[in-house]
Amino acid sequence: MDTTSANLLDPKNPSGPVKINKLRVTVDRNLCIGAATCIAVAPKTYVLDSEAKAIFINTAPEETEETIIDSAKACPVAAIIIQNEAGQQVFPA
């Protein structure tokens, strides 16, 4: 997939934090190992960049919140951090 800035949800912060519907989602680039399980679960939310780190694409709002949370749970190193609208961390708990 083309990862030009035009396809990114937030070109200035490709790994977040980004607001996706009611969730605030961040990929911790120091933890991300490029396993791509997040992409397998939520292909409209993530792609890997040139460093094999997950970044958010502009189709992310098309995913359900449940799918985004499931994608974070699927990450083998818990590199995806999710907060709700109140700023409370939803995952990892």
UniProtKB/TrEMBL annotation:
Task performed by this protein: Ferredoxins are iron-sulfur proteins that transfer electrons in a wide variety of metabolic reactions.
Gene3D superfamilies the UniProt entry points to: 3.30.70.20
A single MF term (Gene Ontology): iron-sulfur cluster binding
Pfam families referenced in this protein's UniProt entry, alphabetically: Fer4_13
InterPro entries with a match to the protein in the record: 3Fe4S_ferredoxin, Fe-S_cluster_ET
Protein name according to UniProt: Ferredoxin
Signal peptide coordinates: none
UniProt keyword terms in alphabetical order: Electron transport, Iron, Iron-sulfur, Metal-binding, Transport
